[in-house]
Design goal:
The protein is an alpha/beta fold. The chain has a single domain, classed as Rossmann fold (3-Layer(aba) Sandwich). 38% of the residues lie in helices and 17% in strands. The strands form 3 sheets. Strands 2-1-3-4-5-8 form a 6-stranded parallel sheet, with helices on both faces. Strands 6-10 form a two-stranded parallel ribbon. A two-stranded antiparallel sheet has the order 7-9. Helix 1 links the parallel strand 1 and strand 2. The longest helix has 15 residues. The protein is globular.
Amino acid sequence: MTTILVTGGTGTLGRHLTERLRAAGHEVRVLSRHAQPYAVDLREGGSGLDAAVTGVDTVVHCATSPRGGDEKAARNLVAAARRAGVGHLVYISIVGVDRVPYGYYTSKLAVERLIEDSGIGWTVLRATQFHDLVLTVLQGLAKLPVMLLPARVKDQPVDVTEVADRLAELAQGAPAGRVDDMGGPEVRTFDSLARAYLKATGRRRAVVKVPLRGAAYRAFREGLHLAPEHAVGKGTFDEFLAKRAGARVVRR
């Protein structure tokens, strides 16, 4: 039996990953800011982090925040993993972090580099956006009478449970370096995703596509965050919405 630490283990991806690893018979420690007994803020580090990684064989790093702090957190985690003699660091990243000049993506790429240079065996998986993230964005945009969407932008959402399956497989294996990207089954325009969401929730909103400016928008418009050659996901966004329609999608 292997001891595996999952950072961000209570999050959208982390909780599914934790379930799979435990079902496979591993001892799994969940680290987050509020999960006992390993309630640790990775940005602060300290003795709590050292206790969390002591005796751990593999660390799967899922914790992240678009609000910043990922690089500091990764430095603390890598340092603690070195001290504890961890043999394998697994990191979940995003397709396009090396091609899209967007602040959060730049930070994710920096974390990849920290893990690659850690001196510890490592594996990095990049995935496209989760269905859950697309849903959250669309819910926010639908709060207004008119949904304003970035023009000429496409997306390739993937089911988080499928990413959890792949990440669990990698965590149970030997360090593999940068593995093939993982994308959802469909590349779709953002407005088609919005219309699918409106149909599934019974909402009525005008949809307006707005051209934006800037290097990040150009990169998204060019599809540099997509992985059509790695469309290995099975579950579609429409299927995801159908499952959520009667439960967690709020109708307004």
